[in-house]
Amino acid sequence: MNRPDVAPILDLRGWGASERLELAAGEMAARLADLLDRALPADEVTPSREFLLAMSAASEDPATRWRLADEVNPLDRLVERFGLSNLEVDLLVLAGLPDEHEGFAGILRTLHPGGEPRPTAGLAAQLFCADRRDRRELRTALQTGVLARHGLVRLIGDGPFFERTLHLAESLWPALHGLDVWPAAVQLRDDPLTDAGLTRWLTSEEVAPALAAIGRDEPLTILITAETDETALQRGAVLASAAAARPVRLVVSEPLTPELQRLIAAHAIARGVLPVIRPPAPEGPGNSMAPEFPGYPGALLICGRFGSIASRGERPVVEIRAERLSPTERHELWSVTVPELADDVPALAARYTVEPETALAAAEDARAIARLYERPLELRDVAHGVRTRAGLAISSGVRLIRPTARWAQLVLPDRRMAQLREALDRLVHQPRVLDQWGFLAGRPGARGVRLLFAGASGTGKTFSSEVMAAELGVDLLLVDISRVVSKWIGETEKNLAEVFDVAERAQAVLLFDEADALFGRRTEVADAHDRYANLETAFLLSRLERFEGLAILATNLRQNIDPAFTRRLEFVLDFEEPGRAERLALWQTHIPSGAPIADDVDLRDLASLYAVVGGFIRNAAVSAGFYAAADGSPISRTHLVRAIRREYEKSGRAFPGYPAGMAAL
After folding, report:
1. Backbone angles phi, psi at 158, to 5 degrees
2. Which has the closest alpha carbon to 474: 382, 579, 370, 364?
3. What pLDDT does 435 receive?
4. Range list of H helices, 220-344
5. How far apart are CA 324 and CA 185, in angstroms?
6. How many CB atoms neighbour CB 649 within 10 A?
7. Please, how many CA atoms are within 13 Å of residue 333, restricted to the half-sphere of its CB?
8. What angle in degrees, to the nearest 10, is found between the helix axes of 102-111 and 17-39?
9. Dmax (CA) of the chain
10. Which CATH number fits domain 401-575: 3.30.70.20, 3.40.50.300, 3.40.50.11270, 3.40.120.10?
């Protein structure tokens, strides 16, 4: 190509990122100065010429020219991967000048027919073209060449070709300077990564070929799918890192249009990184299409939930599923993450089905807690960390309870207490029974424990659930049936699926109070409403059977629960109304040891006379405390009986009468 009589931009391969751009801008400044000298009278170009000559001075310093950097430059990478010609490099540098210095922007504004602080195609022709052939080459480069096809430089405007404006790709100039600046639609994730627990997955028959393909930098899209978008993103980054690539996790907040795909590709190539992309979730039902990234010369990873992304286009796509970690993998994960708690690793592996990045963050949180209280790391600290890092998105139909109840506060017959502990043993001893001995191998939901609590209101069903959650060191999720069930077809199943998913992610105890509203007997199909109600029941049956956690159904009327559910339950506990001995224990439990008690109070007498449940006793004990506080005296028999009578009235039951020797209130 014939060029005007000016020196070409230096071959700056190997220079530091900012040095290279500054020198390239300096060379371009010299060309602009020469153009102004030839095109305008001297008195009109003096200020601009002084600035341009000052900017070009650095490029003439021999010491600067030969000071090499150790790393390849971002601009080098663009040139090599896209095969840019000298003209295309010149156009790219010219388009970036406004972002290099405000002086360039001011000069370009004076030269632009519309007063914009950017170069035009006409200015490029004046700088780089000596004849018609050069102009044809310029037109091709800007309209159909590599720069245009990959979105590196765009022509903006509706006017004649030579009056259109050159725009460099968004945020590309700072990236060429070596700064970690990405387009506005892209969020960079840089939280720590760990491959703990993923050794088997990375070396599996499904994943190993993908590692090799990444190592060869094949033009291939690897689709990583998992239960959540976040899990897929983390697994994709670990996969890329294991292939000795430089992964960069990108969360995209806008639709991945072809223009945005080209923009991400340019940034990734300039940085020499492997993009691991989480596209925006599809709106409404169905899935979204995997972005094609046409012309991208290497491997890339697209991450999303199972079934949320479909593939299309000519670019090869390979899907890799990131399933939950197996018990063996979880054991490895916690062994690496918290070696200080080696004895507790089996319990952690059985209790917490989390991804490596969550375990790593929870372990750091736990160590911070231990340092704060100046004590060794404990299992409860890790439980707190997992709870904090679970990232629960609690829906409006679920109430989160942080359990504080303990076994000592629970008053039940010995047989019921033994059943509750037996249910917890099902969770604690899973590593031995299911993993080492091989029971229920391959059965979905084998790690779940499902219980039915049946009994009158106030007999301790919710309190027992809270005790079990506290013993496991997890939260209790109480499902509000009235807010989960919807009159809209399909909405109830959606709400329930979210509830189960949240409980599994947090390994929380899931409690359905008044469960007969959801798990009741199916009816004969008389109309469409009955048919869809039965579909909801069928969904519940399936999801409950696959649930990997502790699920409790609580009901006042056991006979209302569909037998199909009870067949899938490991435990059915009947909560009978307490006997006299249990009522005495309940009174002693609900009246704190520090509360002032008058001499006339005989809890045995109250337990014998008033056959009530634990919730009734709790409410009466609290009310009696407030009565005594208002009177400025200790809690007396009068206060307690008055509170008991109010509870009978609230429940619509006949008051049995007063203790012997006590006058009516």
Report:
1. -110, 0
2. 382
3. 77
4. 229-242, 258-271, 327-337
5. 30
6. 11
7. 31
8. 30
9. 121
10. 3.40.50.300
What's the rounded mean pLDDT across residues 214-230?
91
Residue showing tokens 């900012």: 18
Q: How many residues does the chain have?
A: 665
> pLDDT per residue over 378-392, tens digit each?
988 998 888 888 766
Domain ranges in the chain are 17-176, 186-321, 342-389, 401-575, 580-651
**Residue appearing with tokens 């899935």:** 287
Tokens of 24: 């390239």
Sign (positive/negative) of CA torsion 147, 153, 159, 160? Answer: negative
Assess contact for 186 and 250: CB atoms under 8 A: yes
Whether 332 contacts 252, CB under 8 Å: no
Contact 96, 168 (CB under 8 A): yes
Distance CA 572, CA 558 (A): 9
Helix (H) or strand (E) holding 278: strand 274-278
Render the burial of 349-381: b for 16+ CB within 10 Å, e for the rest. Answer: bbbbbbbbbbbbbbbebbbebbeeeeeebbbeb
Fold classified for 580-651: Helicase, Ruva Protein; domain 3 (1.10.8)
Secondary structure (DSSP) of 441-499: TT-TTTT-EEEEEEE-TTSSHHHHHHHHHHHHT--EEEE-HHHH--SSTTHHHHHHHHH
Specify the residue for token string 């300077």: 177
pLDDT of 561-614, one tens digit each?
878 778 888 999 999 999 999 999 999 999 999 999 999 999 999 999 999 999
Q: What is the pLDDT of residues 16-30, one digit of tens each?
A: 678 878 888 888 999
What's the pTM value of the predicted model, to 2 decimals?
Answer: 0.77
